[in-house]
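Reopening: structure tokens for the zinc ion complex, inputs below.
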Amino acid sequence: MTGRLAPLAIVALAWGSAALPAEVPAHHADRGFRNPYSDSVSGGAGNFLRVVRMRFFSDMWPTYDPARDRVPRATPALASGASANATVTWVGHATVLIQHQGINVLTDPMFSDRASPVSFAGPRRVTRPALTVGELPPVDVVVISHNHYDHLDAATVKALGDGPVYYVPLGLRRWFERRGIDSGRVFEMDWWDRRYHVSGARSLRLTATPSQHFSGRSLTDRNETLWASWSLAWDDFQVWFAGDTGYNDRQFREIGDRLGKIDLGIVPIGAYEPRFFMRPAHVNPEEAVRIHQDIGATASLAIHWGAFFLSAEGLLTPMHALAAARAEAGIPESEFAAFAVGETRRYPARR
Ligand code: ZN
Ligand code: ZN
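Re-run output (same inputs, fresh job):
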């Protein structure tokens, strides 16, 4: 019996090793990266042409009306000294300042007037950030979700300089080096890589986590660098920053399962119309609420709206649509809030 089974076992072993060559993660492509649960974040040429037609040859694309498009503003109330709470300020778009235990973290810092490679064209900022770079407290840590212009801004990074330590997805270290940032202050991470940022007696555990998006700053570098969401875990408070993402019903449940208790989710709600084009890479408010529930966050903060016209919905539409999505899901405002630009809220740590 054994003698007859042995060759079979050898065949099975050989087949097994052939089928699983070198354990390449599902999001690593031959060249660059890809989404494990969506093939179509590029939308295809037909969809692209439909959007170009909408954008440039129809009146379906919104334009800025200063009387109508007034995003609520508030004065930041930054942390001063130690507190039992985490202090969270929406600077604008995807830029959030999180202050806890004396460690200041800034997400996707973008303080410029245009989300574009050039200063004379591309999406213009219609709502200025709540603070200037000079008004920020000392920034210890910066996390970058991906290299799109509304999330990674050269002028802002130059202004921040070697002050912070930068945690970035795979492939982005060279971008920082080329802009004169000390390479010892830039850490590239793959999905589920972990690092500890130690500051005095305190430490922050950073984990790069998945998202469903894409990358590129020109016509030739599509998906060459990775995109990511981030867990920022203090010993008594965990933030999860989504960056930019579309929805699928796998990744966010996995993130919730693996990270444990998430006290605050930071989730995008804007840049989602037209759906036939935007859906794979940008959630709408309804899907943002689903992400909030999938990760099991105690509370969430809505970002990625109100600053740039990146898509076909109105500037304030995501805020109103979030209110409707919350009502539909039966959750209170405090559980998934759209802050005013500059608004600060404090969230209790777990002790
Ligand atoms: Zn993006
Ligand atoms: Zn974006």
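The radius of gyration is 21 Å. The chain has one domain: 42-347. Marking as resolved unless the reporter disagrees.
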